[in-house]
Amino acid sequence: MPRFLIIYLRTMKYYVRYFDDETMVDNLKEAMDFLGGLPGVEMDDNCVEQLTSYFTTDQKGSKKIFMPNHRSFLVIKTTVNTMEEFKANSLKNAEAGEEKPATGPKSLDVEQHGWYECKLSFQRIVTNPETKKCFYYNDVLEAKVQADCAREAHEQMVKYLRENPDVDERSQMPAAASKNFVWKFIGE
């Protein structure tokens, strides 16, 4: 009795996004047609080369391609067939990741009253009393702060430094959303 091995080849699809405009395409030509029809898309030889390379190689993951006007578009290889499947997949991945602690600019305003362990790296200005010349050096303030959200903890730390007579008022404080402010919620 003959035995058959059935192989289902899933064809590769490509998710292409430029700001709020998005689509699923099957090949490079469809992607170029989609992007070419959008206002604000400026494709130079470098962009076309990167896009072609992404479509013709086994490169995995997503590819962000920057255009000459300093904007970018995103291309993702996927095996799903429709935009609905792609969105459902993204939603499942987002729900699976909900247990991770919130970080980043959006999570700064999540209300969670309690103690925050914070680290603020800032540039402190120091004046040489003899020469009256000023220079900056990097300094770090680490503290446990009670606040309603991470942004409030940042504001309290900056206020403390601004009111401290040992810290020159010209010292540069980082924004709450910068990499120079690190925080962790430690509880009530």
Strand content: 25-35%
- The first-to-last residue Cα distance is 70 Å
Order of helices and strands: EEHHEEHEEHE
Low-pLDDT segments, ≥5 res: 4-10, 97-102
Number of domains: 2
Helix content, binned percent: 25-40%
Total beta-strand segments = 7
What does the average pLDDT come to? Answer: 81
Sheet with most strands: 4 strands, antiparallel
Shape, please?
Answer: elongated
Estimated structural class: alpha+beta
Architecture overview:
With 188 residues, the chain is an alpha+beta fold. The strands form 2 sheets. The protein has a 4-stranded antiparallel sheet with strand order 2-1-4-3, covered by helices on one side. The protein has a 3-stranded antiparallel sheet with strand order 6-5-7. It has 2 domains: 84 residues, no CATH class; 83 residues. The longest helix has 14 residues.
